[in-house]
Amino acid sequence: MGFHLPLYFLFLFLLCPILQAAEFQEPTCGKEVCGNITIPSPFGIHSRCYTHPSFSVTCNQTLNGAKPFINVNGIDLEVLGKAIFSNAILISYPVTYSTNCDRINEAIGCGNWATILRSEADSLGGCSQPRCDDVASESGCFTEITANLTSYTVKMRAMYPDSKGCASAFIFSKYSFRDAYPLPSGINNGTTHVPAVLNWNSSYCGEGGCVSINFYKVESCGNVTFNYPFRVKGQDDPKDWFKVICDKTTNGKKGPFLNISGTNLKILAFDFFDGTVTINHPITYFNCRKNHHNGMSLNLTGTPFYYSDSYNKFWSSGCGNMVTVFNKTYNLIGGCLQPSCRINNETSSTDGCLINIPQGLRSFYVNMSNSDYRRKRSCGFASMISYNYDLKFDISNRAYVPTRLQWGTPIFGVCHLNDSSDTYCTSDGQYCWSKLSYKHLCVCYSNDFGDSSSCQDEKCENYKYCRMLCLHTPSNYCSSKSCPPRYEFNSTGDRCEPKIQTQNKRSLTSIIVGCSTGIGTLFLLLATWSMYKVFKRKQKIMLKQKYFKRNGGLLLQQHLSSNEGNVEKIKLFTSKEMEKATNHYNENRILGQGGQGTVYKGMLIDGSIVAIKKSKMVEGKKFDEKKVEQFINEVIILSQINHRNVVKLLGCCLEAEVPLLVYEFIPNGTLYDLIHNQNEELPLTWEMRLRIAIEIANALFYLHSAASAPIYHRDIKSSNILLDDKYRAKVSDFGSSKSVALEQTHLTTRVQGTFGYMDPEYFRSSQFTEKSDVYSFGVVLIELLTGQKPISAEQSEPVRSLVSYFLDSMQENSLFNILDLMVVKDGPEQEIIVVALLAKRCLNLNGKKRPTMKQVAMELELIKASGGNIIEDHGDEEYEIDDIIHSWESNPSSSMPRTITSNSETFPLNSSF
Question: What range(s) does the Protein kinase domain occupy (predicted)?
């Protein structure tokens, strides 16, 4: 620590000049660079260079240097550059489908039929690959995709049963590969990504939703044309100030209107370059022919408009009148005196008088008084009028006059169009403009205004005049000095000019170069360490992917995507989640251990408690990949089991070396512990034993007949019966992990099951049936009756097997001598006898003569309901008691003979016994 800490602070100290230098350098949008890729507009790395988070680019360090990425629905896609057409970007897209690609020299595939679908029933196209006689080919096939495609799936099937070639499918950009051939070259089984093109749509979004906008289109209504930012039939939004309403006028023809402060004002002209719109403005003051206007103008406060001081004049007509104009706070703006009426002996004058208009005026009030009290008051008129309006004719009979409203402030200075996709032009070629910031535009006009200094040679191309325009919004104030970023106001020339790098910045650049040289060695060491960490992280990810594929993860994902049989109930946990849940498989979390593996108590991220079963690997044994499909099918079937007396499988983790199964947590241990480790605080009463037996029987009946597919447990025993918080039985441990991975140890046989509970008929036929589970249940039933273990080495040799001990007692009418004292004390005699007879039937050596679990469950329910008063007569049933006794009296160790001979049949045993 004493060495690393000073080195760390030294690195931070040397890094400070670099960070300071970065603050002085604003990014050039549309020209940002990450690695060797120039980021096209409207995408950007800096937040100022993109207008929506979807266009945000992150520059990440990879093993191959810095690479730009965009995030699409949580997936990072590498940016390869600008596409050859507008509104598109070239990205590195992952291969969509790949199968049977384990050989090195295989390519696109052959002998397959590929289909691309929008949904399972909506096919978008497909193609057939030529047959390759089981030799991989790169000829492949391709199909065109439809426009505006946002998602798809791919299905591929072999057209010839003997075809074994590698097959892959992907979307790719045909412009990124050789021109002489329509399919990409150089594709093999190691290819994970191919170049593809993403398009985006330009749109305008308001509170009512989004509508597509073509910024190149010139819209018109009547004889007036419009372009950005005005829209004809735009969003129905009261805050959309630039919406043009195309409606009928008084003469029946259509004309454009602008709604301001609840008044529809007819639009007479639109000028993009000047940032103005000319409207029919109501006459502010009028006192002629018994008509009178009160002198109050429109109120433009809160809108992006104000009265243009450059293109309007305040005009009044009449004679002998004193005209005064006030702003909205009634402060005097100006005034003028009209000529006396006695000069020309007239009651009105068209000469009028003129008042200057201040910048940014949004409302005003006009007052007019007669200065000559000896004569009658003349006809008076006063209003804001556009400079272009001809006042040589009588306007006393007009209600409206043309007035220009400013929606953008022209800013004088040199600017040029950006060479990027954020430059727009009108369809008639009259205007082009680029965004300099969110509120500044560089607008170029095709006509020549005679100011050549406003152009930057080739940057203007065919556009003779360019200048900046500051857009108005209710919250944004623009003035002629409001310069865009990277510009500054020059008071001498009264214009905005690009900023010039100062000497301090040039000196700072020299400091950066010196510091960079000084920390070169340190950076190399850090880079090497970072690459090592990245390599180890990537190696760990690849190992997880290897385990996931080997454990059948791809097959399970295929079932999940196809949504077969409610497979969505299965949750795939990551190995990181499992490590966190078990505190890295801490020994304190172990619930139990056995030949199949270890069960841990875990807590998931959401706080739920689960049981996590981790199988054991046997030394020297390889993972049996042939049984992967069988394991996945069993997991799918078990996940669909939904019974209150069956432990629920919640999900699995396939990223570990061996699969992990996640079950619901059952808190009160096993039935084995309850029977053989009884305590006075919780006596195991007869009622409890009978209820538990009924619950186990109902669970097995459900598995055998009520589940979606018949399931045989294969390992019914008291230690596999768990007890919940109310001591209700839950059948657990279906042994699905055994079918994939692991050879079993001394507690279990090599075949499925546990010694002492296994069906003797299984040794003869090597076939496991539902009656085998019935036999194991019978052993659990007599375990409940007697309180003894199925196999006990502590007793004398003749009674090693509980089954033979029980059957002998039944035959000798000494059943009550072997029963648990609690059973004798607490249980009704008739109920005990009936349950014992049922257990005897379950242990019949002939599986066909055993009852089904349905019959067992019904009889136990009947016993509970009737109190043992109904006893069926099974005396006529042939029963080979001697066979069972002799079969269990033999030594079950590895030295026992391979066959056991009875009076009637010979039963082969597995070599492991």
Answer: 585-863
